Amino acid sequence: MPMSSESRFRVSTLPVVSVVVVFLGLALAGPLCAETRRVPQDFPNIQAAIDASSAGDTILVSPAEYREPLRLTPGLTLRAVPGGRGDEDARPVIDLGGAPGTAPGIEMAEGCVLDGFEITGVGAYDEETWKRHHETQGEELGDDEGSVQAEGTVPAIRAAGVACTITNCVVHHNGDVGIALQGKVESGDLVRVAGNRCFRNMGGGIGIALQASPLVSGNECYENLRAGIGCRAAAGIIEDNFCHSNVRAGIGCREGATPIIRANRCVKNRRAGIGIRMPQTRPVVIDNECAENAMAGIGSRDEAAPIIQGNHCHHNQLAGIGSSNGTRPLIVKNRCIENGAAGIGLDGNVSAILLDNECVDNSLVAIGVTNQSQARIERCRCERTGNMPPLIAIRGGSRASIVESEISGGGVAGVLVEGEATIQQCRFLARNENQGTAIWVWAGSELVAVDNETNGYRSAVKATESAVEIAENRFREFGSCAVELKACVDAVVRDNIGVSADEAGVFLKTDRDDTQDVNNSVAVEASDR
Predict the structure, then answer these.
(1) CA 418, CA 396: separation in Å to the nearest integer?
(2) In this structure, are residues 283 and 256 in contact, taking their beta carbons and an 8 Å threshold?
(3) Is residue 478 within 8 Å of residue 459, measured between CB atoms?
(4) pLDDT tens-digit map of 36-69
(5) Which of 372, 374, 386, 366 has its CA nearest to residue 426?
(6) Residue 428 in contact with residue 407, Cβ under 8 Å?
(7) Contacts made by residues 250-256, CB under 8 angstroms, sequence distance 24+
(8) Whole-angstrom Cα distance, residue 81 to residue 61?
């Protein structure tokens, strides 16, 4: 008998419906099969629970001391159960007792999560060695000693080429680096290290190396033998960490590393707050606070090329931002306040661009450009009350262009030139009645000063045995003479306007007949200071 159309529809759809039901069952079975295991309730030790688990499973570990290294498996969550033993802050402790070994305390795996553990005694912590290196600011440490990628380094926690999450752990008193992140993650998934506390490790607190590209955020790293966080030949994002009192830098970046270092607080480290070095090292360093460090707030050297933007560097013992030995930094919109040496210091064949920076009340200079360095300084504000050094010093055959900047105060000079300088559209404001010279040019130097304004300096420009062009400036409230030239051959002084509070004031004094004194004028006006 022929089938009805309704019967034919039911038969033809049966295989499809069956397949859908099977697939739905399989899809639902995955999460339903994930299990939770407990240590020590279900297993006497953690590794036994790991070995019995599969991807998607969770192991909950109660507070106790566990003397076993751990090797995690893919997709596993290993989580501490807080509290217990009468202490709500108690956590499970992986303590290997300081015995030498070749395996890390915890080896991470792809897709796994480690949360809330304490890890200590992985390798030997040596208090006397730590104290010795602390006293010498780590100067006697070998370049690779205790570093994340060095042969023989045994981390407390290691993630080698796997995407994983390490959170809320306390990692301390270990023989090498606390948390080591190594290698490129082929899956492209994220390595996340957040909310951990790493201290008194004989290497760095957190080390990033060998093309790793993690997110490292919200950690506290202190009193580690190397950097709080170190990045070598790697990338990633290092943000919102608190790195203080480390024997070397708060955050160190080297060997071609290119991370984003953002919104960290680096305080009271024995060297720089953030230290950057070596060729091809090009981090973006943005919106960090670097304070009270024993060297620079942010230091770069050895041909590195960082972007340094929007940082607040204050009360460091040396420069707020210091660059040396052939670096090529871009330094933009930083605030460098009350540092022990320069606000921004460039020393030793540095080539830098400085834009929109604020350098206030630094003990020596606001900006120093020294030893064959060169700089473009635009829209910067340099200010200091009192003290003898100049606000901007260009020395040792260096070259600088200073444009649209404000120089307020200064000691012997607003700008001292021992090299080559072009100063254009700048405003100089003296801070007291005995302020010295706005622009002081030393022998053998070159100056072009165009369209500037000075107010209140005893002299606007003073130059000796130099090549100078001084044009279209406005010099107000100077003393007896606005421009003083001594043995300056073929100097050009033209189209300037001077206003003096001294009735005997003159615009130009020169001992050379070949000085081009063209269309300069001076008026006497009572001082409003």
Answers:
(1) 6
(2) no
(3) yes
(4) 999 999 999 999 999 999 999 999 999 999 999 9
(5) 366
(6) yes
(7) 250/221, 250/274, 250/290, 250/293, 251/227, 251/275, 252/204, 252/226, 252/227, 252/276, 253/277, 253/281, 253/283, 253/304, 253/306, 254/230, 254/278, 254/281, 254/304, 255/281, 256/280, 256/281, 256/282
(8) 6
The residue written with tokens 């165009």 in the block is: 450
Contact 38, 64 (CB under 8 A): no
Instruction: Give the dihedral sign, CA 335/339/343/348.
Output: negative
3-state DSSP of 257-321: CCCEEECCEEECCCCCCEEEECCCCCCEEECCEEECCCCCCEEEECCCCCEEECCEEECCCCCCE
Q: Which of 459, 464, 471 is nearest to 517 (CA)?
A: 471
CA distance 397 to 391: 18
Residues 6+ apart with CB under 8 A from 445: 417, 418, 419, 420, 421, 463, 466, 467
Q: How many residues does the chain have?
A: 529
User: What backbone torsions phi and psi does residue 279 show, to the nearest 5 degrees?
Assistant: -60, 150
Q: Please choose, from the candidates 35, 43, 109, the residue with its C-alpha nearest in 3D space to the C-alpha of residue 73.
A: 109
Q: In 3-state terms, what secondary structure has residue 160?
A: strand
Over residues 154-207, the pLDDT tens digits come to: 999 999 999 999 999 999 999 999 999 999 998 888 999 999 999 999 999 999
